[in-house]
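quick one: alpha-D-galactopyranose bound model?
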Amino acid sequence: MRFFASLSVAALALASLTTQAQTLAPPQVALTPPMGWNSWNFFFGKVTDKNIRDSADQIVATGMKDAGYVYVNIDDTWEGERDANGVIHSNAKFPDMKALADYVHSKGLKIGIYSSPGPKTCAGFAGSLGHEEQDARTYAEWGIDYLKYDACSFIGDVMYKQAPNDAAERMRLMIAAYAKMDKALKATGRPIVYSFCQYGWDAVWEWAPAAGGNLWRTTGDISPDWDRMYVILSQQEGLEKYSGPGHWNDPDMLEVGNGRLSLAENRTHFSMWAMLAAPLLAGNDLPNMKPEINAILTNRDVIAIDQDKLGKQGARVYSDGEVDVWTRHLAGGAMAIAVVNAGSDRYSTHPFHLNLHKLGLTDKQTGKDLWTGKTIELTDNMPLELPSHDILLVRVDAPVKNQLRKVILAPTPQPPAAH
Ligand code: GLA
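yep, here:
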């Protein structure tokens, strides 16, 4: 998979899109990363109308709605046939999409749907190619609030067919396809969150905002195991500058509560998605959610990091052995500090000493440990022993910055030039 394509092509495509973007109203949606639930990571192709209703019920009953989860998103496999007029209909698993949307709305929640710019979705159902305006209108009539638009067959059936030997042209086709659906969605007048899913191709973070994207996948699919989650986490480094209110990097939906993730791994996954200002779209079996998973997904302090109004994505500051230290700057001058033990045992990095100076901080900081809820004193060089794959996540409301460091880094004043 190619992540970084020619920048000059991106620049060209952007130039034409920027004119369009400038005439658009400021984003009305996704001013903080979208929060909700999506059907794919647990139900995959088996999802039904009943699963969506049950999940909406559970979002309310488990306190997730009160914690900020809003979108109930139907992923792939809802699609049926197009009628003689080209209008898309849902399949037998979803007998009445409008009624389902009404039901989700009646719970005070919003509803999302899924399609592809190609002829087929990734699971082989009808995509939107050639029917973009029509589909956008249908979604708006149903009351849809969120669209995930997944490249899938567009890559093979359109990009590679039309431009087999021209990478720049393929990229232009991709950008145009996403921009086309953006125009169609905007023409409906309905505020619809627009989520790009093309796995990070062609440096999507550089052109997605101008093509109308509120969020864009930065990687291939997540799976519910530590290795995949950690690879995706590592791939987010350097993307922080592209993210902000109305347009977010999307390292894929949450696997919290799924597969082989231990409790520590679930905590780390959730915490780090918050550090990344990632969309928090749970993907677990809500009717059978264990209390400890519910507790992770509804940790308000961690959610507050994700939803911080400044909208500034966190970054990795340094690693020592298998321990990674990330920080995120928050509104009001606050700071979140995450220390992750990515090693396979508690002692793999023993002893690990936290270096506050590398974080631009003085020797002593007072914060809140967001997983114990207790006040914690951080001191420079303090030893930390974290269980394997666990995290220390601390919010420091009033960090004391290391002024000395600034002085050292400031440019040396130059004598005036001689005349
Ligand atoms: C792709 C996407 C997934 C999911 C499936 C559905 O793999 O990346 O998130 O939407 O398609 O078919």
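Residues 167-187 form the longest helix (21 residues).
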